[in-house]
Specification:
Order of helices and strands: HHHHHHHH
Oligomer: single chain
Pfam families: CMD
Helix content: 55-70%
CATH class: Mainly Alpha
InterPro entries: AhpD-like, AhpD_core, CMD-like
GO molecular function: peroxiredoxin activity
Strand content: under 5%
Structural class: mainly alpha
Protein name: Alkyl hydroperoxide reductase AhpD
CATH topology: AhpD-like
CATH superfamily: AhpD-like
Organism: Rugosimonospora africana
Distance between the termini: 18 Å
């Protein structure tokens, strides 16, 4: 196991952490179900290999009512019966936005249109901001080798 390179940069610059936490608070208050936001956070963090955020995402999802099946199978959500159509649309958008460089049309119309069928513009904004902030935390944690369980 590799060792931490430095503390999380947002911890070293408290104003940055305050800004990130304010963004999280705004997203949480925008009307999107907390379980859905947590599942999106968890899936993003799995894709990016961010141990602290995966661990935190599992805890957060459970706090918001995600079942054990959902938490354990979110990486394979397409192949399971445990996710609603709304959750599936959010997870598809989550994967596309997190993997922008994986295809020429990063967020295909099919993915966007399905999400827009389930979420209004404010909810889509919250979901996109949730994905973006999770990717930001993932990049800070992974590049500095933050370890899960060191809170």
């Amino acid at each position: 196991m590799s060792t931490e390179r430095m503390p999380n940069p947002a911890v070293l610059i408290p104003e940055a952490m305050e800004a990130l936490m304010a963004l999280n608070k705004a997203v949480a208050g925008a009307g999107v179900d907390g379980k859905l936001l947590a599942l999106s956070h968890l899936r993003t963090s799995q894709i990016n290999g961010c141990g602290p955020c995966v661990a935190g995402g599992v805890h957060q999802a459970q706090q918001h009512g995600a079942t054990a099946d959902q938490v354990h199978a979110v990486a394979a959500w397409r192949e399971t019966p445990w996710f609603s159509d709304e959750e599936r649309a959010a997870l598809a958008l989550t994967e596309a936005v997190t993997r922008l460089a994986d295809r020429p049309d990063a967020v295909p119309d099919q993915v966007w249109d399905l999400a827009a069928k389930h979420f209004d513009q404010k909810e889509l904004a919250a979901l996109l901001l949730n994905i973006a902030i999770t990717n930001a935390f993932n990049r800070l944690n992974v590049s500095t080798r933050q370890q899960a369980g060191k809170w």
